[in-house]
Design a protein that fits this description.
Helices cover 80% and strands 0% of the residues. By secondary structure, the chain is an all-alpha fold. The two termini are 29 Å apart. Keywords: Cell membrane, Membrane, Transmembrane, Transmembrane helix, Transport.
Length: 500
Amino acid sequence: MNTPVTTPPHATPREWAGLGVLALALLLLAVDATVLDLAVPAISADLAPSTPQLLWIIDVYSFVLAGLLVVMGNLGDRIGRRRLLLIGAVGFGIASALAAWAVSPEMLIAARVLQGVAGATLMPATLGLIRSMFQDARQRTLAIGVWSAMAGGGAAAGPLVGGWLLEHFWWGSVFLVNLPVMLVLLALAPLLIPESRDPNPGRFDALSALLSMLALVPVVYAVKETAAHGPTTGALLVGLAGVLAAVLFVRRQRRLTDPMLDLRLFALPRFRVAVFTNLLAVFALAGVLFFGSQYLQLVLGRSPLEAGLLMLPGLAASVFGSLAAAWLVRRWRAAVVLAGALVVTAVGAAAFLAVDATTGAEAFVLGFVGIGLGAGVAMTVAADLVVGSAPEERAGAAAAISETAYETGLALGVALLGSTVMAIFRRGLDLSLLPDDAVATASGSLSGAIEVASELPTAVAEEFLSSANQAFVSGIHLTVLGIVAVLLFAAFSAVRTKLC
């Protein structure tokens, strides 16, 4: 007797409306990320952070979020993903208010840490809920495409909203845009999103939770410090501590009956390559957003709103790529789609080799369009492969792995690529033109160099600014070569892997 094939149930209008609410949660995070990129010059002028502090303001959110994602994904499987989503929305709103009224770099960094803790509850909860709400594979791919498009849409809205706010209000206002979104989310989520959890989650292992947090943050910190200041004993020791924690975490997961992270998923080629692809696509996008906003505003002299408008086509391309991914994977193998998307991203990155210190807005826009389009497709397909590989009851944990790759790529993109740009910038500065008491400020950041130049005689200021702008552009060029290399390697790995 043949066993009848069970057709997965199709989503109802309530599930699709619930998807819109989940997208709001992602919008909360995406808007905040790109708004902050545009606010970097204003924050530098008001709070006068050092270069390490400025990088921490940008990337400590991602460090904390990435370190907690596995724990929060596991927690959502236990206590309920919708409940965790609502808790995270409240926490993120409170942390955003604290960031808006920060009066020192240290206070802003602390608020960003709190945002990271709250953000870690939101991201795996949204993707895990999509896995439980959309049982049909085609509908799930489309839903994840919409989810990814909202990330791109939020990123696209961020520069416009942020540019307008920065031209009319103080920089802290860019964090306050989160509050109305949070209120809508809290009002609609209980009505439209069904609760879901693992009915048999097993024992929660506190030691695994601690080791998962201790594994990632020290390694990323060591990478950032090495890129910014060269190899040091302290950075090496911190990095080794993170590697040791990661080894202990992996060994413990293999021994536990109910592991926090199911390492058997990594034995699946589709899962492994999807996670790797997600990380590298975000790595490229995050690095470009970090140095791109400074290039447009500080090198080319565009206003925050003008910089936002120049970024808009690339971020809109990311939305289009996310929505197009579901159509692409129905016509070609997932491996081919992923590889093609990574090649498009690499070609877009290569276009930045044409930017210079005086004209380059057109090359920036074209390059960013290529990066946005390719990354939008790659991230959607990768997230779908990751979530679809896991059983429904472990959806939160699988989503946490996908989001960990996303946030690790985001943190590494800002830390490694941003630090590389600044290291080359410092080496290319002509400091012989400056008085001794201005050297530290000028070499600390591009905004610091501009501040010092404003106090120099006109002829000397022009020569020094030319040196600073050219040094920054040289950093972009070298960094772009590294981005292109890693993306092409990832494309080669994807096309050689059987993902279907």
